[in-house]
Amino acid sequence: MKIQLNRLQKIRFTLLVGLIFFLTPWIFAQSDTLSEKRSHTSPLQISTYLETYYIYDFANPADHTRPDFLYSFNRHNEINLNLGLLKMEYTTNRVRGNLGLMAGTYANANLATEPGVLKNVFEAFVGVKVSQKKNLWVDAGIFTSHIGFESALGATTWNMTRGLLAENSPYYLSGAKISYTSDNQEWFISGLVMNGWQRIQRVPDNQLPAFGHQLTWTPTDKILLNSSSFIGNDYPESERRMRYFHNFYGQFMVNNRLEIITGFDIGMEQKFKESRRYNVWYSPIAIARFSATNKVALSGRIEYYSDKNEVIVSTGTSNGFQTVGYSMNLDYKITDDVLWRLEGRRLNSKDSLFTYNDKPSKNNFILGTSLSIFLK
Length: 376
Description:
The protein contains 3 helices and 18 strands. By secondary structure, it is mostly beta strands.
C-alpha cells in the first residue's frame, strides 16, 4: 500500500527523521555517562563521629563545670558526650558542600552565644570551583576555622584535650573564602571575609566585616608550615576596637615514629575606639608525639598563655590570665575507627584562678579518658 504525503506532512516527516539522527548519538552518550556515574563512588558521603569522655577535676567543682576558658571536655565527674556529629559531604569536580549537625557539651559551651538551632551547626557551606584548569574554589557559609592545628574532632588531634591557644581562638567561622591549591599540592592559600571572631551572627550594630588569610607550605611530606590571620572588630560600632591576630605553626616528622608540632599565637586589640595603644596577648605551644606501635602512641604537651589585660580570657584578677600547662597522653587504637585515650593535665596560673579543697588555688589537675569512633 502506497502512502501519499502532502507537502506539510513531508516537511514534518523530514524534521522528525533529522531530529532522530541528531539525538541518537547524544542519547547513547548520555546512557554511557550515566552508567559510568553509577559505577563510581557516589558524590554524597555520610559519616558520623562520636566522642564520649570522663574527666575528674581535682578542684571538684560543685556544679560539675570546669573553668570557663575550657570548651571541650568541660564537665567534671560525669560520663558525657563531648561531640556527636552527623556529617554529609557532597563533592563533584565543580561543586562541593558540607552539612554537619552536632550535639554534646562542646556545642553547649562553645556556641552558647549563637541563637536557636545554630548552636547545633558544626558546618554548613557550599563551594564552587571557579577555574577549569586550576584548583581554585569559592566557598560560603559556616566552616571550621582556618586558625590553628587543632579542631573540635578529638581523634584528629594529638592530645585528648585541646591546648589553651586552640580553646581561646576560633573553632568555627562564617563568611566566604577563596582558596587555591597548587598543582603539586605544595602550596595552599586562602583569603576570607567573615562575620567576626567565631561568630555565625554578627554582634548587634557591628557593620564591619572581618578579614583573614591562610598560607600553608608543604615542601616535603615531613614538613608543614602554616600562617593564618584575623583582622576585625568584635564590638558594636560605638565601642569599636580593632583586633589583629596571627597564628603560626609548624609540623615536623623527625622519623617514622616521632613527630613534633610547635606553634605561636599573638594578638593585639585597641584599648578603646580610635586608640593608638593596644592590649597584647600571646601563646606558645610545643607537642611531641611518639608512635610506639601502629596502635599505641604517647604525646606530651607544654604550653603558656599570657593575656594580662583579659582581652580573650576574663579572670578579674590583678595579673589577668597567665597560665602554663603540661599534659601527657596515651592513645590506644582499638580498631581503625575506634580510639581510646587517657590524659593527665596540669595548669598553673600566676593568680588563684582555681580551687582545691574549697580554697583558692593557683593549680589545677585533671585525669581524663575518652572513647571515640568514626562511622562512614
